[in-house]
């Protein structure tokens, strides 16, 4: 009871590795034993959910680093199961369980504290997280909380503890409250900030309380639920009449089971929608990749073709790409479409080259290039083109004979 850290175990060991709807991580109240959680574990199991139960020690409230160590080990154990088969996860907290461990787990999942766990693993837990259950909590941890917790019957497990025991427990708790008074307020603010930050995981809340609970005042719980609703969360607040602290299931088993069944159903639906949405997003991304890949290939081909096709440079015109050498067409057969599909790669022979300074090159130059171009009427040709263009604008009949101009070429 007065130690540090805590322990955890799987509630239904025979179900581990089997098929279950999901996992309920139970953050039990301080000083609780395995037998005290047996009814809750059986309830979750009857609904098809496995249970990972965590018992934390009392001093974790005053030493957050001890709570963080327990949270880290618990999170690794949960990850081992989720890596085998991802499934919805619900956190069920009782009494002081959120302060002694649960809020540290939330900080790690949300990235609010440093932890030696891979980011992908934390993202897996975040994607699987699908619901919250608060039973007789959250409790506002004021400076005198330690004293009130220790002497409470649910902690000492005695309806009327001996006076000497109450005095000793009260004295130790009061001393701890006074010793950590300066740090207590900062821890309290961090605790509430973490609980409210959990709304970013978009999971439903079930909050169970009683107006007769002297350890978890209903005003605090109602304010917490109202604030969550204002922030846009799905919150169901269930009030039980006359039930004591963490005694709601014992006094109202039918109503309690109905509320838990509804929450677990919502959690399963949230997880299923999340998986479906992520699957559609992945399919859409794959479709975009498949569509963009051919266009990317065409862009690369066009870019490489501008640089040259098998050593033959290409010139880009206003309308299309055309080869600068007639050798592009040499050796290529214009067969059927099926024949072209059979050719993954077309190897063209090297086009014949003519040496400009050779005999044949000099002969072609002398034949094709006139030696005197002084009598070329370039200006008249230009004016003729203008006249032909303007006449076409006036819808005159086209006379191809007028367009024939002889030249020495």
TrEMBL record:
<dbReference type="InterPro" id="IPR008547">
    <property type="entry name" value="DUF829_TMEM53"/>
</dbReference>
<dbReference type="InterPro" id="IPR029058">
    <property type="entry name" value="AB_hydrolase_fold"/>
</dbReference>
<dbReference type="Pfam" id="PF05705">
    <property type="entry name" value="DUF829"/>
</dbReference>
<protein>
    <recommendedName>
        <fullName>DUF829 domain-containing protein</fullName>
    </recommendedName>
</protein>
């Amino acid at each position: 009871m007065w130690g540090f850290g805590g322990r955890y175990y799987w509630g239904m060991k025979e179900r581990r590795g089997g098929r279950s709807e999901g996992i309920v991580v139970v953050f039990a109240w301080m000083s609780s034993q395995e037998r005290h959680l047996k009814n809750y574990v059986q309830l979750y199991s009857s609904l098809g959910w496995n249970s990972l139960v965590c018992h934390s020690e009392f001093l974790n409230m005053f030493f957050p680093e001890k709570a963080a160590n327990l949270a880290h080990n618990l999170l690794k154990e949960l990850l081992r199961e989720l890596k085998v088969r991802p499934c919805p996860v619900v956190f069920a907290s009782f009494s002081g369980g959120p302060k002694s461990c649960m809020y540290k787990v939330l900080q790690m999942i949300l990235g609010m504290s440093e932890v030696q766990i891979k980011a992908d693993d934390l993202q897996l837990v975040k994607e699987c997280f699908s619901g919250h259950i608060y039973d007789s909590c959250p409790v506002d941890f004021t400076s005198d909380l330690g004293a009130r917790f220790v002497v409470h019957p649910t902690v000492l497990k005695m309806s009327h503890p001996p006076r000497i025991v109450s005095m000793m427990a009260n004295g130790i708790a009061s001393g701890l409250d006074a010793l950590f008074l300066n740090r207590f307020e900062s821890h309290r603010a961090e605790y509430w900030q973490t609980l409210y930050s959990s709304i970013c995981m978009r999971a439903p809340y079930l909050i169970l309380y009683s107006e007769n609970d002297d350890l978890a005042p209903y005003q605090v719980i109602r304010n917490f639920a109202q604030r969550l609703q204002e922030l846009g969360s799905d919150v169901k607040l269930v009030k039980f009449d006359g039930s004591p602290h963490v005694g709601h299931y014992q006094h109202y088993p039918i109503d309690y089971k109905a509320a838990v069944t509804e929450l677990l159903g919502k959690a399963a639906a949230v997880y299923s929608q999340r998986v479906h949405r992520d699957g559609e997003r992945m399919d859409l991304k794959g479709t975009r990749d498949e569509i963009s890949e051919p266009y990317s290939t065409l862009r690369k081909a066009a870019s490489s073709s501008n640089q040259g096709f098998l050593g033959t440079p290409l010139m880009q015109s206003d309308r299309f790409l055309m080869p600068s050498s007639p050798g592009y067409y040499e050796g290529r057969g214009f067969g059927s479409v099926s024949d072209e599909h059979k050719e993954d790669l077309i190897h063209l022979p090297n086009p014949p080259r003519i040496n400009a300074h050779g005999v044949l090159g000099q002969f072609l130059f002398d034949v094709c290039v006139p030696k005197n171009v002084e009598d070329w009427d370039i200006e008249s040709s230009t004016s003729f083109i203008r006249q032909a263009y303007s006449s076409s604008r006036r819808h005159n009949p086209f006379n191809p004979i007028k367009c024939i101009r002889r030249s020495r070429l």
